[in-house]
Design a protein that fits this description.
The protein has a single domain (4-215), classed as HUPs (Rossmann fold). 36% of the residues lie in helices and 11% in strands. The protein has seven helices and five strands. The protein has a five-stranded parallel beta sheet with strand order 3-2-1-4-5, with helices on both faces. The longest helix is centred in the middle third of the chain and has 16 residues, at 97-112. It is globular and about 55 Å long. The protein starts with a strand and ends in a 10-residue tail after the last helix.
Length: 225
């Protein structure tokens, strides 16, 4: 049996690919999905499907309701999800989301003594979120090894793994296809309906469609129209 790893699994294209990569590297994967009050809740159902089909030791779903904080189109229904590219960081940015998700993953990893934590952050074909940058990943890894008893006592050092960080969406898709990922089981749309059908116009949909086109892979996404 391989070493343990905690994998953040949203149910989207990127996180499914990361789980497949971790499995291919021989890790015993513990998948963590977080219901943070996101509009596109159907991605959590997708996460269950992906975890089951790729294979994990355990799949946990935690509640963290960020609707009480708001400030994002993904957690505040009063803010519309944009359908056209804008300037700067988009309103779909969720304040401190990756910091919070990685903190939860770190807590579980410390209990499991799993020294590898995988996240599907990407800094090439992405929406410009500040918590998807390499600087953030490096900073959080440093924090993880300063803030945990396991690291301070020398039982192990945590590594934050972001294998998609420098890949284009097309490269991510090609890698996933190579590893047997069924992307029809994933949900990426920010405004997906309860069945997981995509809107086709939000930023996430556009990046996903562009990736499949550039990868030369048929797009299996189910659209509402």
């Amino acid at each position: 049996m391989g070493d343990k790893a905690v994998v953040l699994l949203s149910g989207g294209l990127d996180s499914a690919t990361v789980l497949a990569i971790a499995r291919a590297e021989g890790y015993r994967c513990y998948a963590l999905s977080v219901d943070y009050g996101q509009r596109h809740g159907s991605e959590l159902a997708a996460a269950r499907r992906v975890a089951r089909e790729i294979g994990v030791e355990e799949h946990r779903r935690l509640q963290l309701d960020l609707r009480g904080i708001g400030g994002s189109a993904l957690t505040d229904s009063a803010i519309e999800i944009p359908t056209r590219p804008g300037e700067g960081i988009p309103v779909t940015y969720v304040p401190a989301r990756n910091t919070l998700l990685l903190s939860l993953a770190l807590a579980w990893a410390e209990v499991l003594e799993a020294w590898e934590i995988f996240i599907g952050a990407n800094a090439v074909d992405y929406s410009g979120y500040p918590d998807c940058r390499p600087e953030f990943i490096r900073s959080f890894e440093q924090t993880a090894n300063l803030a945990t008893r396991a690291a301070v006592e020398g039982r192990g050092r945590f590594r934050i793994r972001a294998p998609l960080l420098k890949l284009s969406k097309a490269e991510i898709i090609r890698k996933g296809v190579e590893l047997g990922v069924d992307y029809s089981r994933t949900v990426s749309c920010y405004a997906a309906d309860e069945r997981g059908h995509a809107c086709g116009v939000c930023d996430s949909c556009r990046l996903r469609a562009k990736g499949f086109q550039e990868a030369g892979v048929p797009d299996p996404t189910l659209y509402r129209c």
